[in-house]
């Protein structure tokens, strides 16, 4: 049996069991907590240099099976990768040509998967972005409502304000801003499935007089400064590094002088925006978010500033997103049978790795999440924002 495994695998001390296609099993350390069932003999040599994208791809394509809690699977597979790849270089910076057709197709691939599937593991408002935990005991529902409130307070949203919601998703924030703060909201998305359900929910809450949602590319936003406030949640990750300047210019043109813009999105660990290493970024690009590119905080901040907006507040919610994704992953894992009836097996495998893997990545500091608040100053450089943050937390 030992001769069937490369020596480099025999020398490891990990809580991992390998089961081979012929029924033999080999423990790589005491008290295995995770089992990798190798179904394809060719994977044995691949396991001697196990990049995270190769391991993930093998699971997605059904060449191996994973036994154990998905959170432990992610942790142990990362330890396996670290042990054998050491400090391998991170992936090279991604530079993708982002046109309207490419972006629409990428959004459809991810967000049009199945509304019912997303409803299984998201909160009741289907907020598909980082929640805000005021305490560790907050439920996912509470934390997502906290997030909506936190964003609206940062925007200093007032009754009658005209709010632009860029990337409105299933409309949870738009409805909250209209219902709780009395705002008039114009939301845009590129997802047909999201728009359909979002409009149904707007109608069900009798908010059609306050909330209008449309399919619209950010590049086509009106540039007449008609909006009092702009909020963009989980959006700039899809814009691409090459288009960040244009994206920020479009937000600048859409908001009035004295108005504020909130950008809430995932940011890169590296200043050049290259993906995290050992293949984790490559897996996300290939299977989860095609053409997604994460900017570093300095990169998106530079583009915001160059567009003419003044950054007035920045907050990291990295650990909040680790907790959010942990909730999502646990909720999905508890309903795998139902999920399997709603999406193809390959898609379910992708999402299981994606949710648990991203929770791990945020917890480890591989990626971050920043809320960046900016104001469009008046011609004389002034603005009306309060001198302190005290009103955020009143």
Automatic annotation (TrEMBL):
Residues 10-80 form the DUF7884 domain. Keywords: Lipid metabolism, Methyltransferase, S-adenosyl-L-methionine, Transferase. It comes from the Bacteria. Its EC number is 2.1.1.-. Pfam families: CMAS, DUF7884. One of its GO terms (molecular function) is methyltransferase activity. CDD domains: AdoMet_MTases. GO terms for biological process: lipid biosynthetic process; methylation. The active site is at residue 358. Belongs to the CFA/CMAS family. This is Putative fatty acid methyltransferase. It comes from Pseudomonas wadenswilerensis.
